[in-house]
Amino acid sequence: MKRKANDNDIKNKVLDTISIDSADENKSEEKVQMTASSHIEDEEYPVVTSEAENIQKNADDQIYSEDDLEEALDAEAKKLSKKRRVKYENIPDGMTRQEYITMKRKDKIKNFTILFLVILLLLTFFSNTIRNMTLPMVATAYVQDGRISPQIRGSGTADAGQPYNVVLSESRTIELLDVKVGSEVKAGDTICTLEDSQSTELTDAENAAQQAKDAYELAMFDTSIPAADVQAIRAGGEISLDSYITQMGQANSAYNLALKDDTDVQAGIDMLQYEKTIAGLYVTANNDHDNPAAGSTTMSDADIKYQLTRLDTQISEGEKDVTDLSAKKEELLALVQSYTEKIDGGATLSESEQSSYISAQIELDDVIGQLYVAESKLNAASDEKIKLTDFGNLEERNAAYYDGRIESENQHKKETALVLENATRQRDEILAKIKAEIGLISLRKAYTDAKDKADKLKSKVIDTKVTAPQDGVITAINYHAGETVPQGETLCSIQLSGTDITVSFNVSADQARKVKVGMEAQPQNAWYYDQFKATLISITNDPENPSSSRRLNFKVECPDIAAGDSVSLTLGEQGADYDMVVPNSAIKEDNSGKFILIIESRNSPLGNRYIARRADIQVLASDDINSAISGSFENYSYVITTASGPVKSGDQVRLSESDL
What we know:
Blueprint: H1 7-17, H2 22-37, H3 50-58, H4 66-88, H5 97-133, E1 137-142, E2 144-148, E3 152-157, E4 164-167, E5 172-177, E6 184-185, E7 190-194, H6 200-219, H7 227-234, H8 241-279, H9 301-344, H10 351-389, H11 391-395, H12 399-459, E8 465-467, E9 472-477, E10 484-485, E11 490-496, E12 501-508, H13 509-512, E13 520-523, E14 533-541, E15 549-557, E16 566-571, E17 576-583, E18 588-590, E19 593-604, E20 607-622, E21 626-631, E22 638-643, E23 652-655
Parallel strand pairs: 1-23
Antiparallel strand pairs: 1-22, 2-17, 3-16, 4-11, 5-7, 5-10, 6-9, 7-8, 9-11, 12-15, 13-14, 13-16, 14-15, 17-21, 18-19, 19-20, 20-21, 20-23
Helix pairs in contact: 1-2, 6-12, 7-12, 8-10, 8-12, 9-10
């Protein structure tokens, strides 16, 4: 059975069910009142708890029974009671709920303070670590006592001068090798025996000579060359370059003259044809030239404009052609003139220069002809433009007037065309003759050179026995029995007897200034040699670093040393002991003098800090590694030797891992 519930019933039921303390009663009552009031509608009150709300979502506008409402309120009250019991079940005995709440608040403040300090400490630590990573890293060394030895030390390879290389002039196969590395030979001793066969180089040279001969003899049958010229070339004669130039000049002159006449006649015919076309145009004043109107004898403005535009285009293109060809003509003229001046000066042109000279002359004549044609076309177009502006004189003439003149000029054109054809043929024949004769002379030279090469190789055919040219020791063998030694390759090397053994090594320019030619050096391992003498014979620049390095060259006299042995030498004064010695890399210098950078350690809450401090010094003695110094600082101080970046006095640095 269902009934309607009022506002006060719901509130009282909630307050009776939930057990709360007096401090929280007002808040709970206000919450219940707000919840209940917000759900009053038409005097029907759905349950205000979460479970009542779920029931309302399942079915809108449904009225529930009192039992359903009580069950929902009981469930909600149990949840609230359970939360409160869990919240206060850990209160120590003898402590009130308010004291417990105060204690928990203090604990939260303490925990927050600790967390803040930890975060601050971490940020400080990491910022200091990042800053340290940006500092230049340095390597250090102790300032300590030690010995400075100004002696110059160095090692070099014993050299007995350039060995004699036994080189074969042709490829040959070794049949028997009579020596080995280290063998002593006398002049004339057999080094190896070669197979008795002709070399590949000689065979190839003879074949090449035969091919060159065949090509030369075949070219003699070229019909472009007169028989007399063939005989002269075959006898070793040369056709005069002046003769070629004269023949070519005559042929080109005749050709250009015929080309001029033929071009002029054709230009006249073209002009008459153009005038005939203009005179035959009958269009109205306002129509386009493509729409003629019968009976009119007046050209339209459109037609005149069209014709003028066409002529302007021809004139523009013609002017460009004339400019380009004129430039090419000047270029070729300069080239021809340069060769002419060499000839006039008494110089003899090589075959390649002669060929270039003739080619330039031929191209020049061709460009001159093209230039004349371009100028003729340009002039014709200009004349047409002039006549078009005087159209009134043309329109009075009929087509028959021009037909007669055109027919007459066509007859003239046949004559000039025939002359041009003959001149062209004669010029081509002359050019073919010149090219063929030059080619024949080149083939003759190629054959002569190939034959000379074959004859030279034949005259240098080596014996089957290869012997030593002088006394010495075999130091290297590159080919053995059964192998073929290529032409020009080294069969073996002989260190000739009687040559001096030298040893060289590089030193700094400062060290080189401390020694003089004639000084004697001692071996670093003197106990190894019974007799030893090394004399400084010269001081030269180091080829790889001539500005700051020098090469010391010694003559070594010792029966125990042979070419290729490593020899270590010392020369100069004996060493002395000093109280303060540092590596040379630690010494710096500026306008104030020489100094070193000392490392000072300073304590801080975050660890040690290392600061570079300048200490002025005086250098007492030096060798190639260390220097003895004096200055105002303590012995056994740390001094910076190298750094990853610029360091000056007062800078903070970080030590390398090896120095920590």
